[in-house]
Amino acid sequence: xLQNLGCCLDPEKLVSVFPHPLCxxxxxxxxxxxxxxxxxxxxxxREYQTITIPGTGNVKWQHIQYLHxxxxxxxxxxxxKLSAAHINFKTQKMKVKLAVQVLSSSCASAxxxxxxxGLQQFADTFATATGPAF
Length: 134
Prior knowledge:
134 residues, mainly alpha, 2 domains, two-stranded antiparallel ribbon, 4 strands, elongated
């Protein structure tokens, strides 16, 4: 839709305004809702399970699940707020804090720590921990 209105979201050629359809003298600015974007990224990752980041690797929902399972089995958290509500968010999908906490730097750091500890199930978490969501 934004392209049809004359916008371009390519960072190299960014155009974030378009003329109002009824009054061409007025420019309409495109502003993304950060909270909504976070929920969209989290929902997309959950729905598709894997998102490929060119040049980086695969971001996987399974890594978030593994992190939660590891923290539950150990009985402690690695500096994040991940809980069952974050994994099974379907009935609370409008809660921004659940999406933000799943995509937080603290979850990324926990995944990185578990990968560097040599735990097999976290061996391929590099893209998940460093992807654009984090």
